[in-house]
Amino acid sequence: MSDKYDVIVIGAGPGGYVAAIKAAQLGLKTACVESWTSEDGKSQVLGGTCLNVGCIPSKALLEVTHKFEEASHDFDGFGIQTSGVKIDVAKMMERKGGIVKQLTGGIAGLFKANGVTSIHGHGKLLAGRKVEVTDKDGKTSTYEADNVIIATGSKPIEIPPAPFDGEYIVDSEGALEFPEVPKRLGIIGAGVIGLELGSVWARLGAEVTVLEAQDTFLPAVDQQIAKDLLKQFQKQGLNIITGARMTGAEVKRKLVNVTYEDSKGKQEAKFDKLIVAVGRRPYTDGALAEDSGVSMDERGFIFVDDNCKTEAPGVWAVGDVVRGPMLAHKASEEGVVVAERIAGHKPQVNYDCIPNVIYTTPEVAWVGKTEEQVKADGEEYNVGTFPFAANGRAMAANAASGMVKIIADAKTDRILGFHVSGPQASEIVAQGVIAMEFGSSAEDLALTCFAHPTLSESVHEAALAVAGGAIHVANRRKKK
């Protein structure tokens, strides 16, 4: 039996590494187990999916390709003359790898600074809060803790009609590593990952077709905004087909032959590459012994209460392995709350105030309820919208598509939903998160002074519009 710890965290992604750092900061003897190994097989890699093959590398590619798109098509409108703009895919990938390496190395530095012990290997929870770790050579060691936090994350869902082959049919990880721009790219799933990856390769010249099984485009997004977004993406050249149920994919002569059914019947399409982005599932493979006392549902999610406690005493679970949205910041928030609770404090995660973002152009971000959800709840509400087309800063930046939309309770004026599509939506949504966290009314935002000229003025105007008092756009006439 090796050392005993106050806390052992299994998994060093955004939920796990944050929980480990916070626990150590609170004076708890903490270890974090992570199995991810570098390509040369020599060293441990921290940061999980988000840092290595998810949020960070995808944003690096989105930034580069957005700049390329602007330089190729939009600079002329600014009076900047360019010619012969080219993309060096190898250099773009090298830059992405450099950013990832810097950030993962940063976590190792934070572990050291905070006194977190890093254990390299595959962690498995045994009965009695013991953790068995198997290293790359197959050697096992057992550790004991007063508390164990499971933060093993998730992995892409593979569907029977299109099994991954790592070259022609790939998951989101493979889509971040294409050595050259595919001429024709197929994507299964018009969710966050599918749209972001589709945007990256479409900007570089790929002919992109996105097949979505659901009839509604982005059903989780407020539909006033989703319908506008669909038009924007179609203008950008993304061919998005909803109600398309995939039936098969076969690689022949270096092409992927896809068959699917839509409202018109059976269809066929040929692609150079096919990305399957239909969602993710909890990664608990080999992470729990049968007698660990931790229960899972039929989809592999670990059962936890509102504070991320499992049914086993002293065992917690956070992030993608538990209920709720599969978001890095949600996992981190849960990790902090669990560490605090282990230390005897009583914080909670406010699941009503977790923002969602899609990093396309325009960006899309929201917090709280959509208009459809508020309507379904039978609540009386008021809506205020303001288009970026009427915002001077957005016009100056040549980014005047989209809007800010605020939904407020008709009786109390409390903000129920805050939605943004347009420039810097991922940053602007934080204003809505803060407002809702403090129980703000739309009037509170309307009475706040915003700097001019800024994109954020659109938040001010949307808040004013809730009560029909927007200044820089005509207000809707209220029904008598």
Question: How many alpha or pi helices?
Answer: 13
What is the CATH class name of the largest domain? Alpha Beta
CATH homologous superfamily grouping of the largest domain: FAD/NAD(P)-binding domain
- Report the radius of gyration as a whole number of Å: 24 Å
Helical residue percent band: 25-40%
Q: By helix and strand content, what is the structural category?
A: alpha/beta
Low-confidence stretches: none
- Outline, from the CA principal axes? globular
- Compute the separation of the termini in Å: 76 Å
Overall tally of structural domains: 3
DSSP strand content = 25-35%
CATH fold-level label of the largest domain:
FAD/NAD(P)-binding domain
Q: How many strands, which pairing sense, and closed or not: the largest β-sheet?
A: 7 strands, mixed
Model description:
FAD binds at residues 59, 123, 152-154, 320, 326-329. Homodimer. Its EC number is 1.8.1.4. NAD(+) binds at residues 189-196, 212, 279. It is found in: Cytoplasm. With 480 residues, the chain is an alpha/beta fold. The protein has 3 domains: 4-54 and 92-156 and 281-349, FAD/NAD(P)-binding domain; 169-278, 3-Layer(bba) Sandwich (FAD/NAD(P)-binding domain), CATH 3.50.50.60; 354-466, 2-Layer Sandwich (Enolase-like, domain 1), CATH 3.30.390. It is 31% helix and 25% strand. Strands 1, 2, 3, 4, 5, 6 and 17 form a 7-stranded mixed β-sheet that branches. Strands 8-15-9-10-11 form a 5-stranded parallel β-sheet. The termini are far apart. The mean pLDDT is 97.
